[in-house]
Amino acid sequence: MIKNNTYIFCLCLLLILSVDILFAQQSKIDSLELILRKTDKEEKAAILNNLAEYYLSVDANSGLNIAGKALEISEELKQEKEHTVALVNIGNAYFELSRYQPAIEFYNKALSELTEQKHTDIRPILLTKIGHCEKLLSNYENALKYYQEALNIHITDKNEKLEPVTYNNIGIIYKLQGDYAEALKYHQKALKSSNLSGNLSEISNTLNYIGSLYWNISKYDSSLTYYEKALEIKREINDQNGEAAILSNIGVLYKDKGEFQKAIDYHSKALDIKQKLGNNKEIATSINNIGSVYLKNNNFEKALEFYNKSLELRLKLNDISEIAQSQSNIALVYKYLNNFNLALEYYNQSLNNLKKVGNKSHIAGCLNQIGGIYAKQNKYDLALENYLNSLKLRQEIEDKPEIAASLINIGIIYDGIGNYEKALDYYTKSLSIKNELGDDKDIAYSLQISGNTYIKLKRFDEALENYIKALEIREKMGDKMSIASSLKSLGNVYLELGDRTKSLIYFNEALKMRDEIGDAQGVSEILNELGNYYNSVGDYNKALEYFEQTIKLSKKTGDQFRLALSYRKAGEILLKKGKPDGIEYVNKSLEIGQDIDHFELIKNAYYSLFQYYYQSGKTEKALQYHINYSIIKDSILAQLNNQKILETQMKFEIEKSQNEITRIENEINELTTEKKIKDIELQEQKNLRDLLIIISLLSIITIILIFRQFILKRRTNKLLKEKIQEIDLSNKLLRESETSLKVLNATKDKFFSIIAHDLKNPFNALYGLTEHIFKNFEKYSQDELKEHINIIHNSAEQLLELLENLLHWSRTQRGKMQYYPISINLSELVSQVIALQRISADKKDIKLVSEIAPSLNIFADPDMLTAILRNLISNAIKFSNTEGIVQVTAKQNSDNTEISVIDNGIGISKQDIEKLFRIDIHYSTSGTSEEQGSGLGLILCHEFVEKHNGKIWVESELNKGSIFKFTIPNFKQ
């Protein structure tokens, strides 16, 4: 690990070196600005262009501003050369600011002017720059086109210096597309070309690229060999920037192998060099890399510390692309810490920045991560939507490795909702792509996750087969962290198969591996598993030994859950052995469980204490602990019921959204088909490539855009003002969201208690009565059976009404109930609702009357208005006496229409009126014929009326009847 004093020393050294470099740069800038003030207008454009070039490495925004001034003057004075240089400088400034689309526009303008001026010497350089921009926008085919044009020029001009550079650029594109064989072919061409020219710098660059290629397919030994050869040459030619880049790559390699100390060491060496060179952009990258090592090693506090330092530097540099990466990394830490709100906040910030840059690959990655957050929250419909949109983008840019990753994530969603067969289907598709790419690391992951799903299906033999294949691959790669994970999985599957001997062997191997790599949390997890194992076979001394080790290690790692778990298990063993100090362990477990608000830990501790005091004859204490145990057990049961309701609702939402999901999946399949057709066409047209290149060049030459005016300062100020307003609005929305979430949580708890209570009666009626009829069916006459069936029908009718209202209400709470108002003839709609309620009214000889003018139209959502009227008329029937009357009237005012549902029934007291329309108070009474209700219908009416910006209220007297009134605002053109 990096020691604090070393880190402080490095920061001090960085400050001193940065000051020296900045002083030298500032001196040059000051000198040029002095010349600028004294020079004639004819020379100003040239001086401004020189000044812009110096500013580009210090402050890209200032460089952009100065280049803009050079452009204006050169255009005014018709200085062709300086005009072209200014265009290139503006393109370079946009490139540094990660604004690649405008960079392409200015490079193309410069390219057009160079063609007119017949300057061809820097054409390939501009083509390469455009290729870089297209690459960073994930437009890989466009990038290939520009790189190939540059290569053709280099080959024609026999430019031995730049020819291998372009081969490498093309190789990188093929690597990004997952075509590793083609990538290797171009890198080997680059190596051959640079060897012929004796260009040591490009030889080392090429070796580094080949090393990176092998790292991509998890061939770590081959990768390390190439990295070390490249590093040796970089040191020989004293290329410190290149040396630092390769040290960083080796650090990443060791991180993936699970050798975290080595990874930190290499990243620290790279950081030292970058600090000496004063390259703040690269310094931020190294600090970010160190954070990633800590994250992989589950040291979340340290990971967050380094990611925040990297973000701070990148914000100062205003590097949007890198800022987005840091925000995404910070979000990932919060995801692992289960702080989903903060994780989503940072991912959304990252997504907004990535959209400004326009890199489709990174946007897809961010959508994928957001999907992961929703999956963690069991919001499967939102997770699936983000995963599918991410997959669609990845299909567009033909990013095979990431397509495979998206398929895995979609499989995980189906796994989460219990559709294991569909999950396996997606895992298989992903594995097929990974096998094609030859990416061992990802192949092993797909096998591992498939094995986990086979476990859930109780198909243990298939799970075992997958786990063994994954382990074999991981052992070849030497990825110790993943090897330990596979060993633990094998231990668990052998335990399920009843082979305790093999299970123990694998658990011990996993423990040894976790210990080797210094994964303290992983070690404590397996120690706990071993304790459970020995406890289950009755070897209490051995079990106690492992639980004590887990306690000791959990204290160091701060893992409160595992600490409490081990305290209780160790305490129970001590009490079994007749050692009273075991009660102290159980009490510690209870205390920690209460501190972290973990119901399961609290419940188990209470039960252990009850058992101990009961067996000790202390009945009063035993009774108190059993009462506590029962209370917490009921709370857990309520939580589980709530979770089941939520999961059922999510499944309902996914099924309901299936058309949209199918549409996106069909689009993805179309993209795949288009890709295959495109590949065939490209193969057939290879002979026409040269002709197409000529046509493309002629097309570019004909596009000449005139840039009239450039006032960057005003535009920058405007953008800054908009950003400040955007931040203020975001802060306000966050505060409002926090308040709203607190209210919604309280509402949800009360709501579930209402539903649990009101579902019980109709279910009990259905269950009890049908069981009674089944057992005594032959004893009943037809009239008695008819009467019982009528009761069952009434219970089912109540239950259906409650569930329908429940689904409507839950959709409004989750924002899924869309509000689509249209012009409606109120008289016709009321007549339709009355017709549906006629059967219920006829049972009680109640007359239903509509007194609404046939010409009365209102502007409302028809579904919501139907639900309001249905609930109000249904309630009026319930609480009306036999042979009563229910009237529906409407009065159109200047600004709204007031609708009334009037009955002459039993009425409502003033105290009870205050309880209506409120979710936090459960108010429900029986009708005049003992009809049951939940009170949810009126809550739903209140929600829907508010959606229309209307009001709802009741006027009532006991034994005289009730008038329920609500208003719908008039539509104004």
What report would you give on this structure?
It contains 39 helices and seven strands. It has 973 residues and is mainly alpha-helical. α16 (320-336) packs antiparallel against α17 and α23 (460-477) packs antiparallel against α24. The radius of gyration is 36 Å and the shape is globular. The model is unreliable at 1-26 (pLDDT under 50). A five-stranded mixed β-sheet has the order 2-4-5-7-6. Strands 1-3 form a two-stranded antiparallel sheet.
Task: Give the helices and strands, then pairings.
Elements: H1 4-38, H2 41-56, H3 60-76, H4 80-96, H5 100-117, H6 123-136, H7 140-157, H8 163-176, H9 180-197, H10 200-216, H11 220-236, H12 240-257, H13 260-277, H14 280-296, H15 300-317, H16 320-336, H17 340-357, H18 360-376, H19 380-396, H20 400-416, H21 420-437, H22 440-456, H23 460-477, H24 480-496, H25 500-517, H26 520-536, H27 540-557, H28 560-576, H29 582-595, H30 599-615, H31 619-656, H32 658-684, H33 689-702, H34 712-775, H35 782-813, E1 822-825, H36 826-843, E2 847-850, E3 857-860, H37 862-878, E4 885-892, E5 896-903, H38 910-913, H39 936-947, E6 952-957, E7 961-969
Parallel strand pairs: 2-4
Antiparallel strand pairs: 1-3, 4-5, 5-7, 6-7
